[in-house]
Each structure stands twice: as structure tokens, then as C-alpha cells.
Amino acid sequence: MKIGILAIQGDYEAHARVLDRLGVAHQFVCSPGDLSGLSGIILPGGESSTHLKIMTEEGLFGALKKFAADGGSFFGTCAGAILLAREVHGPAQASLALLDIAVLRNGYGRQLASDVHLGSTSLRKEPLEMVFIRAPIIESAGKGVEVLAEDAGHPVLVRQGRILAATFHPELTDDTTVHEHFLKLTRNGS
């Protein structure tokens, strides 16, 4: 199994460090050809509109949609969750529309409103450390979307089939629980 990490913008190297700690092969993805041989891909944080612009210019937008149609798994964090959402507000923008959620960009406010919370998750008994940086808010989730963690009454970690999305940054903690769950989804499909 080999995991791709979209390496356009954001702290994609932090995801690589987590995969290194877990002993998982990975490569950075900057062009459609980089998707060859991958089982899954991580869409990191950053600025979703910048990701979208570069993905479109480099031909990655269509290639990622095809990767999903061919059964590839996805894990989006923060801006990556926005890119996966069916519907984006604040302001509206295009997305891959692979995950049946509606998100509000920068839902928690500006950079100064960024924070770290501990919250419960269905992935384990212990609380999960959640680093929110200009995070989106998941406004709604479709019936086929499983909520794996919530914070302040909003879903913050969701899954639909082989797609996982977090509005926080698990790659910025020492905890590998969320990445391990993504790898399990990639291996088993559920």
C-alpha cells in the first residue's frame, strides 16, 4: 500500500512524518502522473481556494475525481475537508464533491480564533486532541455520512465509504489514531 499526499500547499510534510512513524510508504503528489500506483491520498490543510486553483491548472482536479471513481481512498484535513465537500459556503466555491457534507469555510473565525480542544471520538475511549486552525464548520452531513467525532455541537471527523475528513489537523499532534483509521479504510474499504 502506498499513500499519496497532495503537495501543492499546506503542511503536507507533517502528514509525511506521521506516515513515516507508521511505516507506510508514501509520495508527494503534484501532477496527475503522481497518482499512479497509489491506494489512497491525503488532501492537507492550507488555503482551499489556492489548492483548487493549482489542482485545476495542473490537471489534478479531474485526475482526483477519476482516482475516486476507480476506488481510491481520500483523507482531507481542514482545507482538504473543504475540497471533498459536496457543498461549500462562505464564500461558495467548487469542490471535488466526493463527500456528502456542506461546509462553511473559516467557520470558527480568523487565525486568532484557532484553538486546541480535547474531544470524544468513536475511534477510541480516550479523548482526541484536535488542533483547529481557521477551521471549517461542517454545517450538515448526509444520511450516509458517519460522524466519528464532534466538537461544540458540530461534526469534526466524518467518514463516508472510503472517504475520511477532519476539520482539524491530526497531523500536528503526536496521536496517530486518525491516520491509522484512514489506513484501515484504505486497506479494507470500511
Describe the structure.
This protein is an alpha/beta fold. Helices cover 25% and strands 36% of the residues. It has helices at 12-21, 48-57, 60-69, 79-84, 177-188; strands spanning 2-6, 25-29, 40-43, 73-77, 85-89, 99-104, 115-121, 124-132, 137-141, 146-151, 154-160, 163-166. It has a seven-stranded mixed beta sheet. Strands 5-6-9 form a three-stranded mixed beta sheet. Strands 7-8 form a two-stranded antiparallel ribbon. Strand 10 and strand 11 form a beta hairpin. The radius of gyration is 15 Å and the shape is globular. The protein starts with a strand and ends with a helix.
List the helices and strands and how they pair.
Layout: E1 2-6, H1 12-21, E2 25-29, E3 40-43, H2 48-57, H3 60-69, E4 73-77, H4 79-84, E5 85-89, E6 99-104, E7 115-121, E8 124-132, E9 137-141, E10 146-151, E11 154-160, E12 163-166, H5 177-188
Parallel strand pairs: 1-2, 1-3, 3-4, 4-12, 5-6
Antiparallel strand pairs: 6-9, 7-8, 10-11, 11-12
